[in-house]
Design brief:
By secondary structure, this protein is of the alpha+beta class. About 30% of the residues lie in helices and about 25% in strands.
């Protein structure tokens, strides 16, 4: 019967020899499963998912009781996301679509019949914001809000609905989307 090696004789080399077979087994299993890859230059940006903006906003117009506008954004903007949740506590539906701009920025457009305060609270997840002024775009005033460590929020009253723009875009991109929203036709529900 072999005697155990005294504790004093166990060292880092013994630990390394114990771990090497385990690491090799992990690499073999990962390679077989195809879950491992090595890219020397780092990750590559994938293709941005695309949605059908017209169909999405038409479906929203068919489902809600307030006017939905379909903005004509620049051709190189990619509509990539959409959702239709309700504002908690008020059951006011919200139509949100998102765009990726050529600079890689994201801009989101939210439309609702909720009050400006409720819409802002919903989109900021309750984060404290303060009005920073007004941007007048094509005859419509957009109230600009900002909070500590938040992106800007632009809100406009469009009569029977409100529109909110937020995202990581620059001033020109915000102005372009705001202008597109103001001049956008209201979709007729089917």
């Amino acid at each position: 019967m072999a005697e155990k090696k005294p504790r004093i004789l166990q060292n880092n080399k013994d630990m390394a020899w114990s771990l090497i077979p385990l690491l090799l087994a992990c690499v073999v299993i990962a390679a077989i499963a195809g879950q491992c890859s090595l890219r020397v230059g780092g990750p590559e940006a994938g293709q941005v998912p695309r949605i059908d903006l017209g169909a999405t906003l038409q479906a929203d117009a068919d489902s809600v009781d307030f006017p939905i506008r379909r903005p004509e954004v620049p051709a190189d903007w990619i509509p990539n996301s959409a959702s239709r949740p309700s504002i908690p506590g008020s059951d006011s539906p919200v139509s949100t679509v998102g765009f990726v701009t050529p600079s890689g920025s994201y801009l989101g457009l939210t439309q609702s019949d909720a009050s400006e305060e409720d819409l802002l609270r919903f989109r900021t997840d309750g984060a404290r914001t303060e009005g920073q002024g007004v941007e007048s775009v094509a005859g419509t005033d957009w109230v600009v809000y900002r909070g500590e460590n938040t992106e800007p929020f632009w809100v406009a009253d469009l009569g029977r609905s409100r529109a909110l723009i937020t995202g990581s875009g620059n001033q020109d991109e915000f102005l372009a989307l705001a202008s597109a929203v103001v001049s956008a036709p209201v979709l007729d529900p089917r």
